[in-house]
Amino acid sequence: MRQCGSTAVEFALVLPVLVAVLFGAIDGGRLVVSQCMLNYAVIAGARLASVSSTTSFAPVQTAVVAAAPLLNLSTSAVHYQIGAGAADAGFATLTTGNTIRVYSTYNYRPLVFSKLGARTLNASGQIVVQ
Questions:
Q1: Predicted local confidence at residue 52, as pLDDT
Q2: N or C: which end of the chain has fewer CB within 10 A?
């Protein structure tokens, strides 16, 4: 009989640790998936921007947002830089041989361990215009 009580006490002590590890792994997995999605989205946007038939940045922003639907990015979070120039300045000046960099940020918020705080994820994709 005394062993049944000790088992219940051990279970009560170990259960919160197991639950914390489980949900910590879920939040960690979400963080990694969010970073991978953001990386893929900006690379897809950079590939679209490098095509000479793309004449404005709006389709590139839309492509980046569409490539990462689970992140709920806004088009205002997607930016570009041509060569070493200023950010978001003159997409019409893009010519063959230029390097274009498409980049974005995403504010990741953990579901369970919100006290650890949000993280800002950054990603960029760079390609030479064809």
A1: 73
A2: N
Residues 78, 38, 83, 100, Cα dihedral to 10°: -90
Six token digits for residue 52: 């000479």
Find the mean pLDDT for residues 65-72. Answer: 95
Q: What confidence tens digit (pLDDT) does each residue in 8-37 have?
A: 888 899 999 999 899 889 999 999 999 999
Provide the residue type at 121 as one letter: L
- Whether 42 contacts 123, CB under 8 Å: yes
Query: Within 10 Å of residue 117's Cβ, how many Cβ atoms?
Result: 9
Instruction: Give which of 37, 33, 23 is closest to 111, Cα–Cα.
Output: 23
Q: In what order do the strands lie in the sheet with 78-82?
A: 78-82, 99-108, 119-128
Q: Name residue 101's beta-bridge partners.
A: 81, 126
Task: Enumerate long-range contacts of 75-80, CB under 8 Å, 24 or more apart.
Answer: 77/104, 77/105, 77/106, 78/42, 78/45, 78/102, 78/103, 78/104, 79/103, 79/104, 80/49
Number of structural domains the chain divides into = 1
